[in-house]
Amino acid sequence: MSAEPAADPSTVDRSDVDPSAYPRKVLFVAGAGRSGTSTMAGLMQIMGLHVPLPEVAADETNPKGFGEPQWVVENHDRLLKESLVQVSDARPDAWFETGRVSTKEQERIRAAEWLEGHFAVNPELVVKDPRLSWFLSLWRVAAIRTGATPVFATMLRPPAEVVGSKQTYYKNRLGSAHLAASWLNMLLHTERATRESVADGGRVFVRYGDLLDDWTRVVMRVGEQLQLEHVMHARSEAIRNGHRFVDPNLRRMSQTLDDLGLPPRLHELTAQTWEELNKLAEPDGDTAEVHAALDQLREGYVDLYEEAEAISASSVVAAEQKVRKQLKGGAKPAPAPAASGADRIPHGVRAAVPAPVRRGIRKMLGKSR
């Protein structure tokens, strides 16, 4: 759909605006890893929002920086470990595990206190981490407790490109089907978790390709819809810095779903989900009809995953036998004393085992968790 040209923020006189008087707001940048979340967070930082320090250092996988607060990454890693959930977990039940952690009062207090400490620097914060979607309810409550308005920007990138990027830069060995399923799981539940913000205009969906093609139009639209004062009051120097920051060549992946060789039903669900999510990125596209379609797709994915679990008992038994052999035989060097039996198993293997079976294995090993 075509849109009216966005106003050039460099031509607007905002000299009478006092940034310290802006209302408190936290922009949470969500979405699957390698979908443009770093670019969005980096642009918001350039516009004037504050990424709480210290930041995660840039590396060869993201040379322009991640725009991630180090504390948030470490806290999410701790919470995921407690929940026995991995970053790219494809299990629908994983959301129940992280949801239980998110309702713990001590975690809400910890997150709210951390936010409160950074509002002294800037009343508008941006928080981004690929693990963020697992704990959106935790952060929503924490922001509200500090008197801030939580708003959400979810990045959308074609799933085949996300899969390819993860395989290239993260050396992922779990295969295309796993990564596509984890993308489905992440995006379908992220959409549902942010849906209550629709009424107050508190969420947006942004295509990564649109951001690279014309970042000023996209960022100004996000700023206006979410009422981000630093974006709406952006100065010409910030715009110039934004142009230097955005590199259209960042979009290096060109493969499609057909290139992934997915199981037919997984391919179908992934394609349909991508089609519906794209509607959310259109003006006035965040509608009840799209929500209903995504609810059906989420239910379809849950059914598919349960079917896969039901016919994979042999793999589960084999994993259990491997655990027993490793623990009994002691063929490998013993891990550090703090590591439990479960910690000796690759995380991908643990995540593939259904929750009831994992509990049985823990009981067999005499472990409470």
Task: Describe the structure concisely.
Helix content is 54%, strand content 7%. The chain contains 17 helices and 4 strands.
Could you give the topology of this structure?
Elements: E1 25-30, H1 37-47, H2 70-83, H3 94-102, H4 105-119, E2 124-128, H5 136-145, E3 149-156, H6 159-169, H7 175-193, E4 203-207, H8 208-213, H9 215-226, H10 229-232, H11 236-245, H12 257-260, H13 264-280, H14 288-310, H15 313-329, H16 347-352, H17 355-364
Parallel strand pairs: 1-2, 1-3, 3-4
Number of helices: 17
CATH fold topology of one domain? Rossmann fold
Calculate Rg over CA atoms. 22 Å
C-alpha end-to-end distance: 51 Å
Portion of residues in beta strands equals 5-15%
Cα shape? globular
Structural class, from secondary structure content? alpha/beta
Q: From the 3D coordinates, which CATH architecture of one domain would you assign?
A: 3-Layer(aba) Sandwich
Could you name the CATH class of one domain? Alpha Beta
Sequence stretches where pLDDT stays below 50 over 5 or more residues: 1-15, 333-354, 356-369
What sequence of helices (H) and strands (E) makes up the elements?
A: EHHHHEHEHHEHHHHHHHHHH
Structure summary, number of beta strands: 4
CATH homologous superfamily caption of one domain: P-loop containing nucleotide triphosphate hydrolases
The strand order across the widest sheet is 2-1-3-4
Percent helix among the residues?
40-55%
Largest sheet: 4 strands, parallel
Instruction: Provide mean pLDDT, rounded.
Output: 86
